[in-house]
Amino acid sequence: MVADVSRAERIIDGTAGVLRNRSEQELAGYRLSLDYLFQEDWHPLNIGLLLHLHRLLWSETAYPGGELSDQTIRLVLEELKAEQKVSPEGTGRGAVWRRFPDEN
Q1: Of 28, 44, 50, 93, which has the most beta carbons under 10 Å away?
Q2: DSSP letter, residue 60
Q3: Rounded to an integer, what distance in angstroms lies between the CA atom of residue 3 and that of residue 82?
Q4: How far apart are CA 98 and CA 81, in angstroms?
Q5: Which backbone phi and psi does 85 adopt, to 5 degrees?
Q6: At 100, is the secondary structure helix, strand, or coil?
Q7: Are 21 and 13 in contact (CB under 8 A)?
């Protein structure tokens, strides 16, 4: 939480100087992400864009951004497998996932 409105406005304007805590750092990251969305032609929405926005969100903090956790990757792959869009060849981290051809 940012202590006062005027401080938050300076963070959003990019004129706050040193960011004092994680809340201020996160607010600055939101500003960077929104700047990107409003200033760039970011279409279409895809995983690369989401990872880029995640990196921007966390860029002012000491925490990493722009990466998917192993758990997230597993969940997505299992959902795609259930929808018969991909198939694993092998097991564990060494598995290679092959995409089924689109049926047009």
Answers
A1: 28
A2: T
A3: 47
A4: 10
A5: -105, -20
A6: coil
A7: no
Stated pTM of the model: 0.65
**Positive or negative: CA dihedral 44, 46, 50, 55:** negative
Quote the CA–CA distance of 6 and 58 in Å, as a whole number: 22
Kindly tell me the burial class for residue 36, based on how many C-beta atoms sit within 10 Å of its own C-beta (0-12, 13-18, 19 or more).
Answer: middle
For 33: left if phi > 0, alpha if psi spans -120 to 50, otherwise beta; the answer is: alpha
Per-residue model confidence as pLDDT tens digits over 4-59: 899 999 999 999 999 999 999 999 999 999 999 999 998 877 778 888 998 999 99
Q: Is the separation of the CB atoms in 87 and 97 below 8 Å?
A: yes
Which neighbouring-strand residues pair with 96?
Answer: 89
Return the SS3 of 97: strand
Sign of torsion, CA 36 37 39 45?
positive
